[in-house]
Amino acid sequence: MNLMKIAHVPPVVVEVSASVADAVNAMVSNKVGAVAVVENDVLRGIISERDVVKKVVHAGRAASQTRVADVMTTEVESIVEDTPPSEALQIMIDGYFRHLPIVDGKGKVLGILSIRNFLQNRVEELEDSINSITSYYAADGAGG
Amino acid sequence: MNLMKIAHVPPVVVEVSASVADAVNAMVSNKVGAVAVVENDVLRGIISERDVVKKVVHAGRAASQTRVADVMTTEVESIVEDTPPSEALQIMIDGYFRHLPIVDGKGKVLGILSIRNFLQNRVEELEDSINSITSYYAADGAGG
Predict the structure, then answer these.
(1) Of residues B24, B115, B123, nearest to A58 (C-beta)
(2) B116:A119 CB<8 A
């Protein structure tokens, strides 16, 4: 499995100076549940539908008057392109993260993994493994 | 796999007469991404974080002045308790649904499945299968 193949590439990003309304526009037009927040191309945070619902709508703030910098999650875990997929999945499961940015050595965002796509891909991969294991042993049994 | 065991039970519900602000309160306090909308206990729709972001925030509406009935998804697929899990998962994958209500014969909501929990459970189940298949054949090879 190649992480970049199941990630959203190119990533949907907004500048750290953007408003929540800008981030919501980016989410809606790209049909994604979270966007990376960057400053000079470098990852500074992530803002998700959940952040908007909880920290803006629930808090009674106006999206156009609120800066993403004020509601984004700043303690963002990220991975690099060659992080082992099993490690990336474990980070998402343990942290209960729905999204995980993939960055390069300079912190530039290359893509964003969503746990939904990741898990769906993993289910298909495991089903394929089971099929090949069982057909291998079936062939072995028939032939030997 | 028992669907009710991986579903959110009891389900988080709001009345069809509720405002979006009420639905958002229910989402935030229960830490769920969607709530079922009911009328006399019967499923009428579902409203998700995505609906709030897209149809309320992005549309420039005020959550307290908007009724869930006006922004909920009304064409909701649902399943019953004994729907085969593989069928339930396929419905969610094909329809790209993140949430799927489980109802009884009268349309009363019993629980809400989230695709994330479902897929995570399926990954664990498939990994267990692979382990038992390989250890079965390993034992067979060693003994026979």
Answers:
(1) B24
(2) yes
Retrieve residue B33's tokens.
């991404």
Q: How does DSSP assign chain A, residue by residue?
A: --HHHHSBSSPPEEETT-BHHHHHHHHHHHT-SEEEEEETTEEEEEEEHHHIIIIIITTT--GGGSBHHHHSB-S---B-TTS-HHHHHHHHHHHT-SEEEEE-TT-BEEEEEEHHHHHHHHHHHHHHHHHHHHHHHHHHHHH-
Instruction: List pLDDT tens digits, range B61-90.
Output: 999 999 999 999 998 999 999 999 989 999
What pLDDT sits at residue B141?
Answer: 59
The region that residue B113 occupies, defined by phi over 0 for left and psi between -120 and 50 for alpha, beta otherwise, is: beta
The mean pLDDT of chain B is 92
Q: What is the ipTM of this complex?
A: 0.86
- Which residues 99-118 of B have a C-beta within 8 angstroms of A? 115-116
| Secondary structure string (H, E, C) spanning A84-111 | CHHHHHHHHHHHCCCEEEEECCCCEEEE
Q: What is the pLDDT of residues A73-104, one digit of tens each?
A: 998 999 999 999 989 999 998 888 999 999 99
Give the pTM: 0.88
For chain B, domains (ranges, CATH) are 3-143 (3.10.580.10)
Question: Considering CB atoms only, which of B53, B63, B119 is closest to A49?
Answer: B53
- Tell me: the pLDDT tens digits for A50-75? 999 999 999 999 999 999 999 999 98
- Integer Cα distance of A27 and A14 in angstroms: 10
